[in-house]
């Protein structure tokens, strides 16, 4: 069983002459210190650094009593804890007798991780979900154990009539499905982190999403362009350099089998001058091969790609890192100029991502590329093929042939 003792250390003396009173926990012949909110001075302690002020003694004994009580709740599984794990358990925040985790803080931690991984689109969705939940709750405090099925149903019902956007009809159903789905992801991650069934520690006992039907997200509107619209973009010329650059970037993305903007932005120098090899940011965390893909630079796109290559001194392949300080700014510039191009070429709803949709649609529906090869070319995650993919050596020539078929179809 763990033991506790009040400790004051001479080396902890602060500039103002005070000492932080600590509780030493000893468990399995190892020790760790738990800091308290109490500070004493020389008049409160003996020459041997023993506490003599009864007020502090009583306060620390109350803390020790709480620690002993909490340790007793673990029961026989306490021996499976090392001293540091036990300290974490004893000092974790509680709401009465319940485990306390502020879901807003935890969501922000998850958002920060997504940003570090350059998963910007996913991060933006999580930021929007957090903002919406904050508007519903009214304050940045919500214990994860207060998220019940009743709470979720009320929030889902509230979402449609409380959008920040002026075009509510456009985002009603998507928000109603997307935001609760994001909270479910974060809720499950928290349960995975804080619950320990082997030790009988169920800090987050509720599974509220099991009793709530999250509205289905409406089918994504197909964003593929027609061949005629693609030719308009390929042949587009303007005296405005930024607009021209973004149009060229769209063509480059199409020529590289729908390469995403974030992967173009972060692409490093390549060893093979005839290929571009990278790990797709959106799916690399979900795949054993880190979503590696290698695309041959076809002759039709080589000159355009060379136009935007970075100098020898840069570690990056393209110049975009030199022109934009971060991916967020790059993405804003792309979206702004895509809208301009859409107006100039009379292509309603044109987005950068439509290059990817257009390549896939033409490949599968017009150029005679097998659907599975389209799936491979787009570097999607397929749970049914995850194990099989581990054993199959990558054959990039399949992608090269598929891309060639698309190019030749467009040239007819």
Question: Hey, roughly how much beta strand do the residues contain?
Answer: 5-15%
| Overall pLDDT | 88
The low-pLDDT segments are 165-171, 384-392
- What form results from the Cα inertia axes? elongated
State the helicity in percent bands: 40-55%
What is the count of distinct domains?
Answer: 3
Distance between the termini: 80 Å
| Strands in their spatial order, largest beta sheet | 1-2-3
| Helix count from the secondary structure assignment | 16
Alpha-carbon Rg, integer? 29 Å
The run of helices and strands is EEEHHEEHHHHHHHEEHHHHHHH
Instruction: Kindly state the number of beta strands.
Output: 7
The profile of the biggest β sheet is: 3 strands, antiparallel
Broad structural category: mainly alpha
What do you see in this structure?
This protein has helices at 54-74, 83-91, 103-116, 120-137, 149-158, 168-194, 227-234, 241-255, 261-266, 299-307, 320-323, 327-345, 354-365, 371-377, 386-391, 397-410; strands spanning 3-7, 19-27, 30-40, 94-95, 98-99, 275-279, 292-296. With 412 residues, the protein is mainly α. The chain has 3 domains: 3-91, no CATH class; 103-211, no CATH class; 227-410. The strands form 3 sheets. A 3-stranded antiparallel beta sheet has the order 1-2-3, covered by helices on one side. A hairpin with a 2-residue loop joins strand 4 and strand 5 (98-99). Helix 3 crosses helix 6 and helix 8 (241-255) packs across helix 12. The longest helix is centred in the middle third of the chain and has 27 residues, at 168-194. The termini are far apart.
